[in-house]
Amino acid sequence: MSKRKFYTEWAYVLGVVTLALGTALMERADFGLSMVVAPAYLVYLKLSQVWGFVTFGMAEYPLQACLLVALMLILCRFRVAYLCSFVTAVIYGVALDGCMALVALVGGSGMAWRVAYYAAGLVLCSVGVALFFRTYIAPAVYELFVKKLAEKLSRNVSRVKIVYDCTSCLVAIALSFCFFGLWHFEGVKLGTVVCALVNGWLIGWFGRRMDKRFDFIDALPLRRWFE
Q1: What is the spatial distance between Cα 105 and Cα 204, in angstroms, rounded to a whole number?
Q2: CA distance 36 to 80
Q3: Is the pLDDT of residue 1 over 70?
Q4: Angstrom distance (rounded) from CA 57 to CA 20
Q5: Across-strand partners of 214?
């Protein structure tokens, strides 16, 4: 079966949109967020109590900046392209705030609706990350960290993603206890644990389906600027 062409630049755009929309839907479901963004969500909840202007998207910036520094220390090298990941973090933050506003307009708050929001959000987040792994444009720092660490360790990116997700889940739990009291789970619930266990597998599954149907090629000669 011949594959269809899919431009990597479009993969980047769709990755940002689907990841932001998926996160917004999971927040609406209130079963617990993705463990990757849960730490930023907890920081948002805490800071917004002091400064009302702080948004979920804005809370992503300092955490992704710290993760970017950690990545450069682990790799023992600096690339200008890595800074582009922070630009993506800003774009993603704006998209996330926009999607949060849109999802808030959608009706439905019963259990069935919440399950539907969670399931749709989980799938969209997995698709978004799989798309990010197939573009040369710098992804958000979360995905860049996993991608580069997998390369350094010569490990399958999906397996590294699972370990990273579980670590983020533990960090989020620690922040929840620190910010809101011992044994108080805010933003980290059963849905977070489920996501930590299956997200890496889902990303790999969607990635394989994409690779079977599409040839990801560049429309613009910009790849070398991001390597």
Answers
A1: 32
A2: 24
A3: no
A4: 9
A5: 4
pTM, rounded to two decimals:
0.85
- Count Cβ atoms below 10 Å from residue 174 Cβ, excluding itself: 13
Q: Where on the phi/psi map is residue 75: left (φ > 0), alpha (ψ -120 to 50), or beta?
A: alpha
As a whole-number percent, the residues of the chain with pLDDT over 90 amount to: 35
- Look at residue 8 and tell me whether its pLDDT is greater than 80: yes
Q: List all residues 6 or more positions away from 214 whose beta carbon is below 8 Å from its beta carbon.
A: 3, 4, 5, 6
> 214 φ, ψ to 5°?
-130, 150
Task: Give the chain's length.
Answer: 227
DSSP structure class, residue 217? E
Name which of 192, 169, 186 is nearest 118 in CA terms: 192
Q: Please report, for the chain, the start and end positions of each structural domain, with discontinuous segments joined by +.
A: 4-215
pLDDT (tens digit per residue) in 149-167 = 888 888 887 788 878 888 8
Tokens of 110: 């019963």
